[in-house]
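Re: beginner question about structure tokens

> Can someone show what the tokenized structure looks like for a real chain? I only ever see the sequence side.

Sure, here's an example I had lying around. Input first:
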Amino acid sequence: MKIEPFSMERMQSTWENVVEYDMSESGIRAVTLRELKEMGFDLDGVLDMPLGYSQSNGTIELRREIAGHYPGSNISQIEVTNGTSEANYIVSLVLLQKGDGVALELPNYMQLYGVPRSLEAVIRPFHLRYDREWEPDWEEFERSVTPDTRMVYVSNPNNPTGAVLSADAMKRIVDRCEETGAWLLADEVYIGAEIDRPRTPSFWGMSDRVIVCSGLSKAYGIPGIRIGWIVGPEDFIEECWSQHDYLTIGPNKLSDRMARTAVRNRQRLYERTGVILRRNYPLMEDWIRSFDGLFTFHPPQAGAFVFLKYESDTPSESICESIRRNQSTLIVPGLHLGCEGFLRIWMGAEETYLEEGLERIKKGLLVDGRTGRE
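And the corresponding structure tokens:
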């Protein structure tokens, strides 16, 4: 089956480098090469490095660094990819065939809606409930995860809500996967982007049927070098490597080298992320309150964004398009995340950028008093 357009990514790739203010981002303000050098990256040492092919599944050195953060894993259980998106794509290629059931948590980053459908798998969504502070709808979850479900996909912490699953919720999801024989794919790229709570625990180690994908793009603040990874059983990772041979073959050599420094300095980078989020979140809260009830929301526990429910019948795409056109500012409509009636707005920017971006969004929203319509 032909793959369908990825609405959010197409919108972002079309406009994010054209608008004056990109508030559609979801990661933290990016780390510079100078900052990475200060963390120990040997910039001079790579100047004479031949830019040939790197190890296609990730160098032993990088996989050893990554494995160190997943207790009980080894380098044969790690596949390094070009970003977390490629990791998710490869997992789908390995697991899914025509007719397989996929239980998809919504709202979510919708890559794992489009890719399984292109493989002719059957999507069965289960929703996080706004009226329950983004707790999963467990009745819907039970209906979605059945003996013919091949894969369950969750992002934890969740994009776009910023919600973090409780320990009981994580166990309930894993138990259901073991009961039905489904694989759990846990996208954990926002672990480390907690705002004011303890570090989110990984699903890794809770079951032999757990696969974890993550990467440097979000909590680490290093999206530009495109490094992600898959963690799973050795035989499964071997299959992932085979699929990788047909795609990008492997990560580039310079990115692999930089990623070793990043993963080695994970705690330092997470602390940087936390400082930025704790500084910016009060600015975002004040901005939301300034609308006198237009928005309601549950404060995010993690992630560099807020997901705002608005009181209007105007479609979210129309609001975002009006703001882009009139204010040269990009934000994400809830429709692109599987949840109409919401807007996702970035808060991981430098402070003055954030303040100006929010001011422009406000001007756009108040074009007709409340909805953003012209």
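Each token stands for a local structural state, so reading them left to right follows the chain. The first helix runs from residue 7 to 15.
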